[in-house]
Design brief:
By secondary structure, the protein is α+β, with helices and mostly antiparallel strands. It has 10 helices and 16 strands. It folds into 3 domains: 50 residues, no CATH class; 61 residues, no CATH class; 197 residues, Immunoglobulins (Immunoglobulin-like), CATH 2.60.40. Strands 3, 5, 7, 8, 10, 11, 13, 15 and 16 form a 9-stranded mixed beta sheet that branches. Strands 1, 2, 4, 6 and 9 form a 5-stranded antiparallel beta sheet that branches. Helix 3 crosses helix 4.
Length: 334
């Protein structure tokens, strides 16, 4: 890891807002780099001093003076639309823009989606997919880490009608050109995330190119109207890339409590085992497309970590936790 990458993540590291693999990489860097270690110690000292400061009460008339200044500035300000219309040369442009907006809005509401998209393309408009958020510079690659990891910004299990904010974090081990993330939702699982439907099923929710080690996070919002465990298929595709696919098992519960499950037993395939795990523990589980060979299991339902650990131990898999989502995957030892 380079020093600038470590310094960019200092605040997140102190607040405990980095993923477990990134935390390990940062701790290793701070142990080896005296300069970054001094920056870390200095920031911690500053935060400690700030926390020791006693709060200061503002003057009694402070609030009244602030509001008086705000009201005076609002009364003196000229509306932006009046400033535009006061210029004769701008009036025609404003009117033309307003007409174009009305026509486009009417087309979006009245025309079929495919017809509207084709018309927009003919007019020269580009409707890009979301490019993800929290894009980060190239970071050190972790051996064995899958190219796509799922995390969640919402608590689990998900309640009926509640929207969960999943995050798909992509960090490829090779350069990806014309990459895209395809999501296939089961019947009953809804999503407010924009996307483009593709002929063989699913929707593209992100597309772009990445260098090896670059990290980009893509949001995926989902909800369901009935309880159950929903299996979401996610695939990362790119030119000259074998692709990476995973299945995400999302438990959705009703308001009333159900009888607790004490054991997960039976001759179960991987999908059956993970679906029962998600339902019994209330956690979201993501797994790569590993073997579906049924195996006999008899796992006591204790903590989510112990249940997932026993599953991985039996099948020779690795696992990690990313913001409440348990990611299970195969590791290539080199």
């Amino acid at each position: 890891m380079r020093c600038q990458q470590a310094l960019d993540r200092l605040s997140d590291y102190i607040e405990g807002a980095v993923s477990p693999p990134m935390q390990i990489a940062l701790e290793n860097h701070f142990a080896e780099c005296p300069s970054c270690a001094r920056e870390l110690a200095s920031l911690r000292e500053c935060l400690s001093l700030l926390q020791q400061l006693e709060p200061v009460d503002p003057p009694a008339d402070f609030r009244a003076k602030v509001w008086a200044r705000i009201e005076a500035q609002e009364q003196a300000a000229v509306p932006w639309w009046r400033a535009l219309l006061d210029r004769p040369a701008q009036r025609v442009r404003v009117a033309a823009t307003a007409v174009a907006l009305v026509v486009f809005t009417a087309a979006a509401l009245l025309l079929p989606k495919s017809a509207f998209d084709k018309s927009a393309i003919k007019l020269g408009y580009d409707w890009p997919l979301p490019q993800g958020f929290a894009a980060k510079p190239a970071a050190d690659l972790f051996t064995g880490r899958p190219d796509l990891v799922v995390s969640s910004r919402s608590k689990s299990p998900l309640a009926v009608g509640e929207e969960a904010a999943l995050v798909l974090e992509v960090q490829p081990k090779q350069d990806l050109k014309d990459a895209r993330i395809v999501v296939v939702r089961p019947e009953g699982l809804l999503s407010s995330t924009r996307g483009i439907s593709i002929p063989y099923g699913g929707r593209i929710i992100w597309q772009g190119s990445l260098k090896a080690g670059d990290i980009v996070s893509v949001p995926l919002n989902i909800s369901a109207r009935t309880p159950g465990v929903y299996r979401l298929l996610i695939r990362l595709e790119a030119a000259d890339y074998p692709g990476y696919g995973c299945r995400v098992f999302v438990p959705v519960t009703a308001s009333e409590r159900t009888e607790a499950v004490t054991f997960i037993s039976g001759n179960l395939s991987m999908d059956e085992l993970l679906a029962r795990t998600a339902l019994a523990t209330g956690i979201i589980v993501a797994s790569d497309l590993s073997s579906q060979r049924p195996l006999p299991v008899n796992i006591p339902v204790t903590t989510p970590g112990r249940v997932v650990s026993q599953i991985c131990s039996q099948r020779g898999l690795a696992w990690s936790v990313s913001d409440g989502v348990y990611n299970i995957y195969e590791v290539e030892y080199r």
